[in-house]
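Reminder to self: tokens first, then the designed residues, so the page reads top to bottom the way the pipeline ran.
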């Protein structure tokens, strides 16, 4: 296959689910061998759907997806599916060789009998070498960051010609992101990546596919991530300037038409021409990029009927090289005090947060009556069978339907989304639903586990500002330094030290 040959091509591809607005309308683009391409677009614009079209898990409504014969494809998913969490590591990797995209490329290969040495090799690649020989360990027992590495490994073990990475930095610590970046830069095969981590993307991107959620089109750009983002911003500013100029000319012509129409006689013909000119100018107005819209600034109200100490921590557990260590500590949080938990993937941050949220952590006491708002990184606090409205209503004890819908709208949860099931939303939309629930819940203790995962980068400063102003007690875990810098942190607990 030639270096510059397009291994993947979309020709007039359209796709939409029944009774919903189409996600893609007559899309054209091509991906050349060996390139590293980023997919940009708002939450819900169809980025993950695009991956499913490439893998063949779904078929286009119309148009063609052309993949060069013999090209193998593997997808590193955003999260481990719920039905795979209780598999052993060996079963998890074995299942990779039964997917539609693998079957398409490997023509009937069944069970992989040399799976154990292949698992060892791929765990080394994703920097999980300390966990080699854990083939019988249950996937659920790995931390969020370790599961992220398993997801990447599940794609790499297939040795694909085309590697699809869906939010691969979610839950990864700094070392994990650095390791993944190095791998992608040095990886000789074709990669397409969805991510909201700008610095990560800019380290390897040489092209961008830009999904417009309002026009349902895809625009293809050449260049690194920052250059392309600047091109898009400049184009938007140019469109806005042109529209402003057209709007002024349109209003001028309408004003003149009204003036001449009042004169009567021959002046009415002049007025008609002015109105026609205004109509012609209106047709030239460009549909500007509305997907740059962000969530509205918001506040998470703190529970009012609590005073004094909210949570007291005297002991916690860490996990280092498969050993459990009990640590002593003295931390007392009152209203308006924020605690950050730090440490590498697998040390026990999420485990500690979950036990505190469930009020089962040894060595942690929570004042009775405190409402706990828990943002969990895998969204398992949400019932995926509930509609969005049902999920919000569950925590909105005293708020009216109008108030619930107003809060939802602030998080871009519009009328066409609010009656959808949680399970049918994109991961980014689930995150916004989780934040809307916190606003309605009015917690006294806020527990946040990687709250920027899956979230559009445009929303992150607004979320940071809301957390910075939160007046209850807060415990937060995040591997995104720029995000944490925007939030007031009163205490830091490093689980590694």
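Designed residues (497 positions):
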């Amino acid at each position: 296959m030639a270096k510059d040959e397009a291994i993947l091509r979309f020709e007039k591809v359209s796709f939409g689910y029944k009774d919903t607005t189409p996600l893609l309308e007559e899309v054209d683009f091509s991906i050349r061998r060996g390139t590293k391409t980023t997919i940009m677009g708002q939450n819900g614009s169809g980025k993950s759907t695009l991956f499913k079209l490439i893998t063949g898990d779904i078929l286009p409504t119309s148009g063609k997806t052309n993949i060069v014969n013999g090209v193998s494809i593997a997808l590193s998913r955003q999260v481990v599916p719920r039905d795979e969490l209780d598999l052993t590591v060996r079963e998890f990797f074995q299942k990779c060789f039964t997917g539609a995209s693998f079957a398409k490329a490997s023509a009937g290969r069944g069970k992989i009998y040399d799976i154990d040495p292949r698992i060892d090799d791929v765990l080394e690649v994703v920097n999980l070498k300390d966990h080699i020989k854990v083939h019988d360990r249950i996937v659920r027992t790995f931390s969020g960051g370790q599961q992220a590495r398993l997801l990447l490994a599940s794609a790499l073990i297939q040795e694909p010609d085309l590697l699809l990475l869906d939010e691969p930095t979610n839950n990864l610590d700094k070392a994990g992101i650095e390791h993944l970046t190095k791998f992608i830069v040095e990886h000789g095969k074709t990669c397409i990546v969805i991510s909201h981590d700008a610095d990560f993307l800019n380290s390897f991107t040489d092209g961008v596919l830009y999904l417009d959620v309002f026009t349902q089109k895809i625009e293809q750009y050449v260049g690194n991530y920052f250059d392309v983002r600047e091109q898009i911003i400049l184009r938007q500013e140019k469109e806005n300037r042109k529209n402003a100029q057209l709007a002024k000319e349109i209003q001028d012509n309408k004003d003149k038409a009204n003036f001449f129409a009042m004169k009567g006689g021959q002046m009415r013909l002049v007025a008609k021409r002015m109105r026609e000119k205004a109509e012609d100018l209106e047709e030239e107005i460009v549909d500007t990029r509305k997907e740059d819209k962000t969530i509205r600034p918001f506040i998470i109200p703190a529970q009012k009927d609590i005073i004094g100490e909210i949570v007291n921590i005297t002991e916690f557990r860490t996990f280092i090289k498969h050993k459990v260590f009990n640590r002593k500590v003295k931390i007392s949080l009152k209203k308006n005090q924020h605690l950050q938990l730090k440490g590498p993937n697998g040390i026990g941050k999420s485990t500690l947060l979950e036990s505190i949220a469930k009020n089962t952590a040894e060595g942690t006491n929570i004042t009775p009556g405190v409402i706990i708002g828990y943002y969990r990184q895998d969204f398992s606090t949400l019932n995926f069978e509930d509609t969005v409205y049902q999920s919000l209503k569950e925590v909105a004890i005293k708020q009216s339907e109008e108030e619930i819908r107003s809060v939802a709208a602030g998080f871009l949860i519009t009328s066409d989304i609010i009656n959808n099931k949680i399970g049918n939303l994109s991961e980014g939309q689930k995150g916004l639903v989780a934040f809307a629930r916190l606003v309605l819940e009015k917690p006294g203790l806020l527990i946040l586990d990687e709250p920027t995962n899956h979230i559009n980068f445009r929303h992150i400063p607004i979320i940071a500002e809301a957390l910075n102003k939160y007046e209850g007690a807060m415990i937060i875990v995040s591997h995104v330094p720029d995000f944490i810098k925007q939030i007031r942190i009163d205490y830091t607990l490093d689980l590694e030290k």
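Confidence is low (pLDDT under 50) at residues 100-109.
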